[in-house]
Amino acid sequence: MTTTVPSDAELLGAHVAGDPHAFGELVARHRDRLWAVALRTTGDPEEASDALQDAMISAFRRADQFRGDSAVTTWLHRIVVNASLDRLRRKAVRHSLPLPDDNEDLPGAVVADPNDHMDRRETQMVISAALAELPPDQRDAVVLVDVEGWSVEDAAVMLGCPPGTVKSRCFRGRAKLAKRLAFLRNQDQAGTVTTTEGGEVPHDR
Fold it and tell me: Residue 62 — φ and ψ, nearest 5°?
C-alpha cells in the first residue's frame, strides 16, 4: 500500500484545521533551507537563529492568512527574510555591537581591530535597513537574486511570476538601493553588497 505524502499546502491547511503535528512536519521539511535564508540575510548565526525562531512563530500564528497565491515555501521564505531584516534593523537602531574583550589580559594574544569588525557590521546593517525600506515585491526579488545568489529563472519559480517581472523588480529595487547607498560606492568590504555606477548590485550568480 502506497502512502501519500501530504503537500506543503495540505500540511499548512491541516495545521489551520487543528492538526497538532502538521506545522512541525512542515517546518522540519524546510528548516535547513529556511535557516540558510536567515543566515545569508543576517550574516550572523546568532541573529539567524533568533530570526528563524521569530519567523516560525509568526508563520504558526498567521497560517490562516495564507491564500495560496504562491508556493508555501515562498510564503515561508518571505516571512524569514522579513524577520531577519527586522532584527538587523532593530539592532542598527540600538547600535549595540559587542566588542571582543576576552583576550585583554592574555600575554601575546592577537586581537583583531574591533573597529574593522564594527565597520563591517554597521555597513551590513545599513544595507539591511535599506532593503527593508523597499516595496515587498522588489525586496523579495533583490534578496533572492542579489543577496542569496539565485538565478532570475529560479527566483521567478519561487515568486510565482515570469522571469521578466523578476528582472524588472530587481532593476527598480537596485536603482533605489543605489541612491540610498550611494556613499558605499567606493567601499569594497568582503561579505557586503556594494553599488556601482549603473545601479547594479553585484551577486555571485
Answer: -105, 15
Cα–Cα distance list, 176 to 3, 16, 180 (Å): 49, 38, 6
Average pLDDT over residues 16-36: 94
Cα Rg of the chain (Å, integer): 19
- Taking the model in full, what pTM does it have? 0.61
Distance CA 75, CA 184 (A): 31
> For residue 108, is it left (φ>0), alpha (ψ between -120 and 50) or beta?
left
Helices 45-62 + 22-42 axis angle, to 10:
140
User: Of the candidates 96, 119, 149, which is a domain's last residue?
Assistant: 96
Alpha-carbon gap, residue 202 to 28, rounded angstroms: 32
State which residues form the domain around 148: 134-205
What's the average model confidence in pLDDT over 147-165?
84
Contact 27, 75 (CB under 8 A): no
pLDDT of residue 97: 39
Backbone angles phi and psi of 54, in degrees to 5: -60, -45
Structural domain contains residue 120? no
Q: Cα(first)–Cα(last) distance of the chain, in Å?
A: 44
